[in-house]
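Hello support,

Our group uses your service weekly, and this is the first time we've seen a run hang past the timeout. The protein is GntR family transcriptional regulator. I'm not sure whether the cause is the sequence or the server load. Input pasted verbatim:
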Amino acid sequence: MAIAARKQPLYDQLVDILTEKIEHEYRPGDMLPSERELSKYYGLSRTTVRLALQELERLGLVVRQHGRGTFVADRSVQTTNLSQTYSFTEQMRELGRKPATTILEFSEIESDKNLASSLGVRIGDKLFKIKRLRSADGVPMMVERTYLPVRKFMSLKRPMLEHESLYHVIEQYFHEKIRVAEEEFFASIARPADAHLLDISEGAPVLDLVRTTYNMGNEIIEYTLSVARADQFKYRIFHYRNE
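Update from on-call engineer: The timeout came from a worker crash unrelated to the input. Re-ran successfully.
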């Protein structure tokens, strides 16, 4: 089935055709035909097909997984209310999903200029660096890089985070009451290392999140940089009008 010659670019025509199929024929999780199959069926070059699939991925309609194929994204993902305290573990449990955390790194580092500024500490002060892969029902969802001031959590050990949420450890073991967490998020693309961990294509759309958490004394006790799969997260915030 060759695509007709029009002024519209060929890959753009294929995007329209596949979008129509995704919306009316395919279901979330269905695998699309391979690049070779699409190329043969529509009489297009592999390069043109690849461009179309990249555009569908950018639009959040499909997820491309290395070595597996291209799958229809689940756009019914429930939203996270940013007006509430955020906990990945609690959110996944509320959604009926099984959360899992893989600790990829637990180390002690010295703060550089950027981390010192972000955490309100001095350059060279000791920090815990915790890199974690967050998953739900076996699906990789988010890569988190968390920094904590060592002076606040002197006795923190890796095993403490293997079976408990970070916030539970902070509040129950170290008696640091969380007052507020500020979070910024913006659209980005997956860098190679994160793409590999999240099982998505390099350059796939992701959400970059920056979270700064304060205790009751208005001290920063956590600074976290996260990369989340765009096809797995939606965020919602409520704005209230003052009369």
